[in-house]
Amino acid sequence: MELAYIPSPSRGVWNLGPIPLRAYAFCIIIGVFVAVWLGNKRWIARGGRAGTVADIAVWAVPFGLVGGRLYHVITDYELYFSPGRDWVDAFKVWEGGLGIWGAIALGAVGAWIGCRRRGIPLPAYADAIAPGIAFAQAIGRWGNWFNQELYGRETHVPWALHITSSEGGRVPGYYHPTFLYESLWCIGVALLVIWADRRFQLGHGRAFALYVAAYCVGRGWIEYMRVDDAHHILGLRLNDWTAIIVFLLAVTYIVVSAKKRPGRETVVEPGASDGPTEGVAAAEADGEEAGAEAKADAEVEDKAGDEAEGKAEPDAVEAKDEAESAKKS
Predict the structure, then answer these.
(1) Helix ranges restricted to H, 76-118
(2) Long-range contacts of range 251-258, CB-CB < 8 Å, 24 or more positions apart?
(3) Which of 82, 83, 138, 302 has the fewest CB atoms within 10 Å around its CB?
């Protein structure tokens, strides 16, 4: 008898009339909002305008969803295109199945388009949203909990996940909650990036590269624990190899970038300094300058008046003397 375990939800879908409300989709949506909210705060702190992160996210998020789904379908094609399978299921994103590798890759393409339209450097934008993406992943993983998927090997630890569904080949039992492990790991990655960014003033995409490298470390050991079907190469799951390769690329980028472009960008969004606060300051400066000029003009006029008055006084005395002489004669 198990005294402690993590129960699985009895359902992951609630129907509001004819409209299905899916917990998996809500987890993703909440994650996106958190990423945009935090990214916006960090972007403003870096000298950018409020709202820019959301504007670019309009491009990045749809690209990321498509990329995540494509990666999943391509790497697990047998789930959709093998005999007895329905290829239409490949479009059912709400049933789960988004690969983070594809989401980041194609999402970066969408972000690049949005940044290019705004004249913003993509690396600076990536640095601003990096911790938010990690938090979004932490929230999104709870969608796997609602779907009772992506769990690890059997275990009897007190925090074991109790799987109750037998759909899709599942075997009810107690398993490692790898969704929880990855969620907690992503929170740690987000906090690490925030700390390192403040401590070392990371710039030119290095905060984002740190997020990628740190995530890959956790994904490697968590992926190794999972028991769902996956392609294996030399005894390792495909996602393990992907994590290793991406980790090496991220670390290489950090090292090379730090040597070629040390420090942080001084300007992340052209024209962002012409905001309301700067406008008020400029108006006050103009007012002070105009006041100084008026004061100077007044002083010049007063001086001229004094000189005229001083010159007029001897003339008046001379005229008075002439008048008195004429009267005597």
Answers:
(1) 78-81, 100-118
(2) 251/209, 251/213, 253/205, 253/206, 253/209, 254/206, 254/209, 254/210, 254/213, 257/204, 257/205, 257/206, 257/209, 258/206
(3) 83
How far is the C-alpha of 27 from the C-alpha of 147, rounded, in Å? 11
Q: How far apart are CA 15 and CA 106, in angstroms?
A: 32
pTM of the complete model: 0.79
Read off the pLDDT of each residue in 61-67 and give the average, rounded to a whole number: 94
Tokens representing residue 298 in the block: 């007044």
Q: What is the pLDDT of residue 275?
A: 44
pLDDT for 122-153, tens place per residue?
A: 999 999 999 999 999 999 999 999 989 889 99
Specify whether the CB–CB gap between 96 and 57 falls below 8 A: no
- The better pLDDT of the pair 17, 183 is held by 183
Residues 202 and 263: their CA atoms lie apart, in Å, by 7
DSSP code for 157: S
What integer pLDDT is reported at residue 281 of this predicted model? 42
**Pairing mode, strands 6-7 and 161-163:** parallel
Using CA atoms, how far apart are residues 76 and 148, in angstroms rounded to an integer?
18
Question: What mean pLDDT, rounded, does the chain reach?
Answer: 84
pLDDT higher for 137 or 11? 137
d(CA 218, CA 178): 11
Which tokens go with 53? 């992160």
Residue 278, pLDDT score? 43
List all residues 6 or more positions away from 99 whose beta carbon is below 8 Å from its beta carbon.
67, 68, 69, 70, 71, 72, 75
H-helix segments, the chain: 23-45, 52-75, 78-81, 100-118, 122-140, 142-147, 178-200, 206-225, 238-260, 276-328
